[in-house]
Structures are given as C-alpha cells and as structure tokens.
Amino acid sequence: MAAEILERLFSLKGRKALVTGGYKGIGRAIAETYAEAGADVAVVARNLLGCQEAAREIAGKYGVKAVGKSLDVTDAKRVDGVVREIAGELGRIDILVNSAGIPGSEKPVLKMTDADLDEVMNVDFRGTFFVSRAVAQVMVRQKGGRIINVSSILGRIAARNMSGYCASKAAVIQLTRVMALELMRD
Fold first, then answer.
1. Looking at the predicted structure, is the pLDDT value of residue 55 above 70?
2. Which phi and psi angles does 15 have, rounded to 5°?
3. Which of 39, 56, 81, 120 could form a disulfide with 34 if both were Cys (CB 3.0 to 4.6 A apart)?
4. Is 79 within 8 Å of 73 (Cβ atoms)?
C-alpha cells in the first residue's frame, strides 16, 4: 500500500528529463531516481561512452527510454545543438537538472591562476547558464518545464582555498533566482 501511495505521489511517467553530469555521481543518482519514477532520461557529460553505458543500464533496469550523449557544457554552440537533438529524440524536455560540475583548484586566492579560475567558472557557472538558456527556450515553446540547478553550501559560505568554486556556486544560486523571476510566467 505504501509503495502504491508513493508511486502516485512521485510519478514522472510520461515526463522527459535531461541530466547534465548524469553518468556518474550525483547526476547518475538523479537520472536513476527519475527513471525509477517513470521518466525518460537523457544523460549528458563529456564522456560519451560513460553516458551511453549509463543510458543502456538505466533503460534496461527501469524500462524507460534513455539516451546518452557527449556534451561539453562550456561550448555554447554544442549545448544548443545537443539540446535540440534531445528535444527531438524525446519529444520534449520537461525537467532539466544541471548537475555537471567540478571542484576546481584548491589554492589560496594569491596562488590561483587565470586558468584555474576560468576552468571552474566555465564548467560550474557558464555551463549551467548555457544549458539552462538552451533548455528554457524549449520549455517556453512547449509552455512549461522545470529547471533544477545543483549548487553547494559553499555558494553561501566561504571556504579557504576554494575561491573559484565558492564564487561559481554563488553565481549559480543567483542565476537560478533571476531565471525564476524571468521565466515564472512561462
């Protein structure tokens, strides 16, 4: 009885979800949870073979449609193209989970290089921005959807030797707030 109630409360049957960083770690757990609830899922990350294997395993285990694609979230043009491909293959995108992220270099501010900062900001913030923007365009056209951005407590509090990561995650929190204000009617 409890399982039936839970299934009714948390059913994603017929929904289509895109999860960045979805072939391992937190992203994989999210993709599997959504698939278990009945959603078809697209798993994207830089590692094509990892994404394809995760998609096969998820489809086999949960009986949903699952696709795995290579995506470097820092490449805005590639993001736009892959999002279009996924929307075409799945028919729509109802849920986006931006889970792709890296911790970046653990160095004091005075030892951080431009490259160290660029790497973490490009993946954690700009990648989240690029994917959110591309998927939001799809969601506005289809008149609905949900975007979930994974941040960190370090987006709210400071930690030594984590300036790039803390700043990138704070930026994700603010991006999420701005997008909520701008897109709530859509």
1. yes
2. -85, 155
3. 39
4. yes
